[in-house]
């Protein structure tokens, strides 16, 4: 990974005015940081500022919402994208999780103030308040239909809600500790939950019953992901005939990001181990990129890319800062990641530069959600930021 470039979080506002300045820096691993600045020399007729960079940095391209900077000495290049809009009125405190519905029309988010809300994705206008969890709501996501929400909280309860009338349709009880993450299997007749109690459970939504404890790790499960396995991967066979209430679990892998520095992969239906990988620190989050490639992020800032077919050694380890990796999400032919130092970035195979989503000033960006060319982030500063990749 090339040396990460950083920019002042509000660079787009700072460079709108004549002689406005914004700071820049480049952090080559193991070398002194290079510092620089950008200066606005005026604005063109198209409303786009004319910007020059100090020595060591080059402005390759600029428009109203993005700027592409290079540091030739360190062979580093990043395109910085400012938010298209900020939604500040959804929650009053830190926003810990968010998701966007499959049609892109609605958002759901949970906050450190204990609230969970559904809002219009286009303008942040509040639509519904989902009340029923005791204590914090840790995770919330839409079912594929976009009409139903799944949430998990510190009250060890998993709940299913109607996005249309805010009613709680189902409550699942069984975990002995707070639920930290969930995954939906196929169209959502079954769901998976991971908890601080060290267990992962599979649930039947139709009968609101637990279909079984898939794993009991003895360590907090911070993240879970379900993915369709490539045909070449041996997922093992179930010891017992699966319940007919299990729908869509065959040929699926289950990935667990664990607090004890372990990343565990199992056959979802077979419950058999596929691999166990030991990382540098607690794993916070994980996701599948394909039927055999996956990503997992640790508390000390490592993003591991692993191939399930040969998981002993990572395909690559990306380390941009020592801040915790909080969220990972497949995006086009790459992924988007967020960290505890406010950085949020997109890495794509066909781009020789990183796209940085700016705006958060050192506040952790807890979660990222995407819909088509739009990316939404939620942050400790209480803002939901919406980015338009067409602004690039």
From TrEMBL:
Keywords: Proteasome, Repeat, WD repeat. It comes from the Eukaryota. GO terms for cellular component: cytosol; proteasome complex. It holds the Pfam family WD40. Interacts with PSMC1, PSMC2, PSMC3, PSMC4, PSMC5 and PSMC6. Interacts with SUPT6H. The keyword Plastid does not apply. The lineage of its organism: Eukaryota, Metazoa, Chordata, Craniata, Vertebrata. WD repeats lie at residues 88-129, 130-171, 172-204. This is Proteasomal ATPase-associated factor 1. It comes from Molossus molossus. Belongs to the WD repeat PAAF1/RPN14 family.
């Amino acid at each position: 990974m090339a040396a990460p470039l950083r920019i002042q979080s509000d660079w787009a506002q700072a460079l709108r005015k004549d002689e406005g300045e914004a700071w820049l820096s480049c952090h080559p691993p193991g070398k002194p940081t290079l510092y620089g600045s950008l200066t606005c020399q005026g604005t063109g007729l198209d409303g786009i500022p004319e910007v020059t960079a100090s020595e060591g940095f080059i402005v390759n391209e600029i428009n109203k919402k993005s700027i592409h900077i290079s540091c030739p000495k360190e062979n580093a290049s990043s395109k910085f994208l400012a938010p298209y809009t900020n939604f500040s009125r959804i929650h009053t405190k830190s926003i810990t999780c968010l998701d966007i519905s499959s049609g892109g029309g609605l958002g759901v988010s949970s906050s450190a103030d204990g609230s969970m809300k559904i809002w219009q994705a286009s303008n942040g206008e509040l639509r519904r308040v989902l009340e029923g969890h005791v204590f914090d709501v840790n995770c919330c996501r839409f079912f594929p239909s976009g009409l139903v929400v799944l949430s998990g909280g510190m009250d060890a309860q998993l709940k299913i809600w109607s996005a249309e009338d805010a009613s709680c349709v189902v409550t699942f009880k069984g975990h002995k500790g707070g639920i930290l993450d969930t995954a939906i299997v196929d169209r959502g007749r079954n769901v998976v939950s991971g908890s601080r109690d060290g267990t992962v459970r599979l649930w039947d939504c139709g009968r609101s019953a637990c279909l079984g404890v898939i794993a009991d790790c003895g360590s907090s499960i911070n993240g879970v992901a379900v993915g369709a396995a490539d045909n070449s991967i041996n997922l093992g066979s179930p010891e017992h005939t699966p319940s007919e209430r299990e729908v869509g679990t065959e040929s699926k892998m289950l990935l667990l990001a664990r607090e004890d520095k372990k990343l565990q992969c199992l056959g979802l239906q077979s419950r058999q181990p596929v691999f166990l990988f030991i990382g540098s620190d607690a794993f916070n989050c994980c996701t599948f990129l394909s039927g055999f490639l996956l990503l997992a992020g640790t508390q000390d800032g490592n993003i591991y890319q692993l191939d399930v077919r040969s998981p002993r050694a990572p395909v690559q380890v990306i380390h941009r800062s020592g801040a915790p990796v909080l969220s990972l999400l497949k995006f086009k032919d790459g992924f988007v990641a967020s960290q505890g130092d406010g950085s949020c970035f997109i890495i794509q195979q066909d781009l020789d530069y990183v796209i940085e989503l700016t705006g958060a000033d050192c506040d952790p960006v807890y979660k990222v959600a995407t819909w088509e060319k739009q990316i939404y982030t939620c942050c400790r500063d209480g803002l939901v930021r919406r980015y338009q990749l067409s602004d690039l």
